[in-house]
């Protein structure tokens, strides 16, 4: 091998580097549980610079202790009758040091996740987490608490199904379409009926609004939701989606409800190419011809980036924060479904002013994350929007 240059040799023989190399395996074994435990304790998806250096220092300290009191004694005194016992002790201690943090991490994460869930569940009415309701006030705010949901609870932000299953005959008709069919009973069997039909965006945005309306008026609600399957009369949907739409359209035609709620537009990732949902106009025209009131809801912005992960920064005295993006880069200047309001019996609800303010959209509003990923409104925020959107429906229907 070629000789190593003097300056390089001096660097490699520098005592701190030699010591680090000497305990490298201990560092390898210990550092990851230290980092995970620290992130769990702080409730963060990643550590800041100061926390990261602290975790490194703690890892090095624990690794030195392991090297000093576990590895080195076994290496320096390998002879004698107790060699097997010593090696066994080394293995046991090494496993304990590796596995104990693993189980400890799981316990810490589970406890932290439970805390985050509890905070989200108690958020309605909590002045620390007003969500979009703060946009209508000029009161001073103080958001010293971390925004919700936390990183361990965000993936549980899906709006749940309604509490009861659909009739078995509906489930049978929808077999093979991967449709979530669920129902919310009304005040009585003669209560007005509302049907939600669409995809996961309808689930995240419309279901909480329908539930709010049902709570106010005693209405019955049924939902037919299929991932990536919008509601419309159009033959370009994939096979399962075509079947779902045909089955639901037949059910609505045979026994028309009072109201159908659906997504009226579809946004595009990171550009303003928002369009009317394919086939939705034909569906609206058919349903309204049956005497059904159709409530359309405009889609929300979508991105190629994770809108939850992009930033958790916000001033404690500001209603908005996180990432900021131009409304007109993500949404059409005018709601593409607005023209459907010329169809008698159609109502269009546009929630854009609850995501964006004066042309700028935010990913944290009222100390609540607006999104749970790159395109879905998170459940905590959608539930906070529901009363305002229900008010808008009530106003158009003359119920308030």
UniProtKB/TrEMBL annotation:
GO terms for molecular function: acyltransferase activity, transferring groups other than amino-acyl groups. Keywords: Membrane, Transmembrane, Transmembrane helix. InterPro entries: Acyl_transf_3_dom (IPR002656), Acyltransferase_3 (IPR050879), SGNH (IPR043968). One of its GO terms (biological process) is polysaccharide biosynthetic process. Residues 12-67 form the Acyltransferase domain. Residues 177-390 form the SGNH domain. The chain crosses the membrane at residues 50-69, 89-109. It comes from the Bacteria. GO terms for cellular component: membrane. This is Uncharacterized protein. The lineage of its organism: Bacteria, Bacillati, Actinomycetota, Actinomycetes, Propionibacteriales.
